[in-house]
Design brief:
The protein is about 55% helix and about 5% strand. Strands 1-2-3 form a three-stranded antiparallel sheet, with no helix packed on it. Helix 2 packs across helix 4 and helix 6 packs across helix 10. The longest helix is centred in the C-terminal third of the chain and has 22 residues. The N and C termini lie far apart (about 60 Å). This is Tyrosine recombinase XerD. It is found in: Cytoplasm. Belongs to the 'phage' integrase family. XerC subfamily. Belongs to the 'phage' integrase family. XerD subfamily.
Length: about 300
């Protein structure tokens, strides 16, 4: 049974071209599912799994306090896996077919105000190479709405500063071209000419953003930098690496950007994912109204 899970993960990597983080998520879900089927239901063949077993597994997760979003993700992972087993001829039926996906409350993403964004962007110390790098990273994130994983995977050759755009590889190995504003272009130019050579210390590295050892910056490394800069900027809100991406999309829509254009820049496969930001803008408008209208 474990071999089938390994075959599925290999399929996701080689044939579907999914990102490593996505594959790791499938791996966690399916090994947890396999453990339940094997140790609680005492099943040693995928052909013997029933819909009732899957339902009981999801209820067991719910009893442990798992959130609806986790249950929905687990259900999606199990369904994809069982469809794979049918395609491969391992089983002839899909016990997950009639299993309901738990409804999830779609939480509105947290965004920064324009004032908070400005404070964050001016927090890095431009008198130091590290500060110039941090400034360039923040400007690029806010200018493009990249995911942090996409940011740290950028190479210098992916930027076309004269034309004002960059090329990135997103989820599912899909390439997209994203405009790069003037502030971001200038910040990157300063970093490349004055800071990166100092950080590289004569090393050769194609990575656009490097750490103090001249190696490619990691997602975890950026997360630490962001928390430090947010603290220095006096931003009280909880901030994550995705906050600038959310802010990028929300501020564009607030200023009249086309939803389809924002979808393309974010690299969303489905426009319904992008539409969540229209709810954010409406929510913010209501907050402004109730705060400032004299008869609210």
């Amino acid at each position: 049974m474990k071999d089938s899970v390994q075959d599925f993960l290999h399929y996701l990597l080689v044939e579907r071209g999914l990102a490593d983080n996505t594959i790791q998520s499938y791996k966690r879900d399916l090994y947890q599912y396999l453990d339940y089927i094997h140790n609680h239901e005492h099943i040693e063949d995928w052909t013997l799994v029933t819909r009732q077993m899957i339902t009981q597994y999801l209820y067991a997760l719910k009893d442990k306090g798992r959130q609806a979003t986790t249950l929905a993700r687990q259900t999606a992972s199990i369904r994809s896996f069982h469809r794979f087993l049918i395609r491969e001829g391992v089983t002839s039926h899909d016990p997950s077919d009639q299993v309901g996906v738990p409804k999830t409350e779609r939480k509105l993403p947290k965004v920064l105000s324009m004032n908070d964004v400005e404070r964050l962007l001016t927090a890095p110390d431009l008198a130091t190479p590290i500060g110039m790098r941090d400034k360039a990273m923040l400007e690029v994130l806010y200018a493009t709405g990249l995911r942090v994983s996409e940011l740290v995977q950028l190479n210098a050759e992916d930027l076309h500063l004269t034309l004002g755009f960059l090329r990135c590889i997103g989820k599912g190995n899909k390439e997209r071209i994203v405009p790069l504003g003037g502030h971001a272009v200038r910040a990157v130019e300063n970093y490349l000419s004055e800071a990166k050579p100092f950080l590289l210390k004569k090393k050769n590295n194609d990575a656009l953003f490097v750490n103090h050892r001249g190696e490619r910056l990691t997602r975890q490394g950026f997360w630490k930098i962001l928390k430090k800069l947010a603290l220095e900027a006096g931003i009280q809100k909880t901030i994550t690496p995705h906050t600038l991406r959310h802010s990028f999309a929300t501020h564009l829509l607030e200023n009249g950007a086309d939803l389809r254009a924002v979808q393309e820049m974010l690299g969303h496969a489905d426009i319904s994912t992008t539409q969540i930001y229209t709810h954010v803008t409406k929510h913010r408008l209501k907050d402004v109204y109730s705060t400032y209208h004299p008869r609210a």
